[in-house]
Amino acid sequence: MFSRLFVGTVLLISSILASAAEYQTQITVAQDGSGDFKSIQQAIYASKTFPYERITIYVKNGIYKEKVEIYSWNTRISLIGESREGTIISYDDYFDKIHKGRNSTFHTYSMKVAGNDFSAQNLTIINTSGPVGQAVALHVEADRASFENVTLKGFQDTLYLAGEGHRSYFKNCYIEGSIDFIFGEGTALFEGCEIKSLSDGYVTAASTPANVEYGFVFKYCKLTAAADVNNVYLGRPWRKFARTVFMTSELGDHIHADGWHNWDDPNNEKTVFYAEYDNNGPGRKPRKRVSWSKQLSKSEAKDFSENRILKGWVPIK
What we know:
The chain is mainly beta and 317 residues long. It contains 5 helices and 22 strands. It has a 22-stranded parallel beta sheet that branches.
């Protein structure tokens, strides 16, 4: 009996190891044909579903005009560009173009990430449709998705963070947009990022669920604006339990003195959690902020550590 069990265990382990060895873990994408594939989506199609070992897709410089989707079964994918400025994923869908009804916004992405444990480095993702309404550049609904040295460009609704409690991490990224350009129900930590407003509007529109402790947290970030932009709010609530915090960040003079907006519904003031801590710059005006926002104490700020926000997940850095 023991012998048969031992043999069965050995066969099972051998089968798993053999399966793990049957797929390619390093893939190169190059438009000139020098890689394994000419398009990023082709590389995704060729990637093993639910791999045991991380699959790294290296993308050489070029403008990849394609709608990229990392599916839920494409877990443990790393997408690494040759250079941040030269490796560009670009598409131009927007709300009125795609004709998918009232939820068209969520189909406008240039890239969508649904596979857990995703990471991206050294590339740019753009929605090039311009100021024509809702037009998402990056849609993230995976859990444990990290982005480092990534540029995101769009106007309204540039970055959508989906999935209740799903965790995303952005380090040294550049994100630009106009209205509600960082929005959604996900949990996200932004560190050392530049957040640029292209018009008067709102930086964030969180829709944090009532049972989720953390929404969007910005640390050591820099909020900038295009010329003649001077009336930008830090956030407004897409749903009534929105949670957004800016900490130890530089706020430009384009930030409205009120700081936060109730989306024309005073009832939201009772349920949102909007807070700041140790910010600097001309946009820091704690005494002029709306009364229903909060200035954190030093002890309260300790609750916003990376470990607590990300629930113990350590992002790829």
